[in-house]
Amino acid sequence: MPGVLIVDDDPLIRHLIATTLKDVAGFQLTEAADGEEAVAAAERDEPALVFLDIDMPRLNGIEACESAARAPGPPPTRRS
Fold first, then answer.
1. pTM
2. CA-CA to 26 of 20 to 30 Å: which in 15, 17, 50, 66?
3. Is the pLDDT reported for residue 1 higher than 70?
4. Is-contact 5 51, C-beta < 8 A?
C-alpha cells in the first residue's frame, strides 16, 4: 500500500485530505503540522506522495522541499 504524507498547519485541511484518501483509495497516511515535522516524517516513512502546504510556521513548504532534497538517499521526484 503506497504511503502518503499530508502536511498542513490547519488540522481541518489535513483531516479532509486524509478522509478522502482513506475512504477512496486505502492509502497508508501520515500527517504533519509543519515543515519540520514533514521533513522528519518523509525521512522516516519515505512516502510515495506528499501533499504539502506552502504557508506554514517554523519551516514553510518550500524550505521543507529544499531540506528533503538535501537529505541522503535517492532524490525526491517532483511533479506539478
1. 0.82
2. 66
3. no
4. yes
